[in-house]
């Protein structure tokens, strides 16, 4: 697998004017793999937007290497880079305490009753407390743990997704940063490669960690 990153050219408004909703970012990601587009095949990819200082970056986790020119379509020329993700995966050990970043779609389903025959209504979790609890409730099944005083919500918003012949959809997102501890290596690697939660095609679910252990 490969982890790629490119700096988004936000200073060039004309260049990035079409990046005005999640579907546009999704298309950018897919178009970065022209061979798949040509063959009519789409492999699983995870992606997200990171805000680091005044800069914005697109991150993509993929099975194949993206095309550098296509990856820089809305990016700053010369900033696209791709690394072999297996190098990181092979370094990890249970008990490692690592810095992480993650964007999730924090929602809950309200039951319609056992006999209603209907799916529960899905509502967004919008407070920092709710969103932190959402992460903690899912940590164990993905092989890691977090402490209350070592993780924060760094951003939350409603992102717009526009689809042809459909009403725009607002997707609740929460960005997390902090420290985690690997409790189950096999489950944790699955979380890194398969993502966490819903809306993975639209910028949620990609968990990344910084190589090297922290005390």
Describe, in plain words, how this protein is organized in 3D:
The protein is built from six helices and eleven strands. It has helices at 22-31, 34-39, 68-71, 85-89, 128-139, 185-194; strands spanning 2-7, 46-52, 55-62, 81-84, 97-104, 107-110, 121-124, 144-145, 151-161, 169-182, 207-209. The strands form three sheets. Strands 5, 8, 9, 10 and 11 form a five-stranded antiparallel β-sheet that branches. Strands 2-3-1-4 form a four-stranded antiparallel β-sheet. Strand 9 and strand 10 form a beta hairpin. The longest helix is centred in the middle third of the chain and has 12 residues, at 128-139. The two termini are 28 Å apart. The model has no long low-confidence stretch (mean pLDDT 92).
Low-confidence stretches: none
What is the percent of helical residues? Answer: 10-25%
**Mind telling me the C-alpha Rg?**
18 Å
Average of the residue pLDDT scores? 92
- Kindly state the number of beta strands: 11
| Percent in strands | 25-35%
* SSE string: EHHEEHEHEEEHEEEHE
Number of helices: 6
What structural category characterises the helix and strand content?
alpha+beta
Which shape, going by the Cα principal axes? globular
N-to-C span: 28 Å
* Largest β-sheet summary: 5 strands, antiparallel
């Amino acid at each position: 697998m490969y982890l790629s990153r490119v700096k988004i050219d936000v200073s060039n408004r004309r260049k990035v004017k079409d990046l005005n909703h999640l579907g546009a970012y999704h298309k950018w990601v897919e178009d970065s793999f022209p061979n798949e587009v040509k063959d009519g095949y789409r492999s699983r990819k995870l992606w997200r937007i990171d805000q680091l200082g005044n800069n914005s970056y697109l991150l993509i986790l993929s099975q194949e290497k993206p095309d550098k020119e296509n990856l820089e379509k809305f990016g700053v020329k010369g900033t696209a880079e791709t690394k072999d993700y297996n190098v990181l995966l092979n370094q990890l050990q249970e008990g490692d305490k690592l810095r992480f970043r993650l964007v999730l779609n924090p929602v809950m389903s309200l039951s319609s009753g056992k006999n209603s025959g209907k799916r529960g209504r899905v509502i967004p979790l919008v407070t920092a407390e709710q969103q932190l609890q959402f992460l903690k409730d899912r940590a164990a099944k993905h092989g890691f743990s977090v402490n209350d005083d070592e993780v924060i919500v760094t951003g939350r918003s409603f992102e717009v997704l526009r689809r042809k012949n459909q009403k725009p959809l607002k997707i609740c997102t929460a960005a997390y940063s902090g420290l985690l501890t690997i409790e189950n290596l096999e489950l944790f690697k699955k979380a890194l490669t398969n993502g966490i939660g819903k809306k993975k095609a639209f910028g949620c679910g990609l968990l990344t960690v910084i190589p090297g252990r922290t005390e």
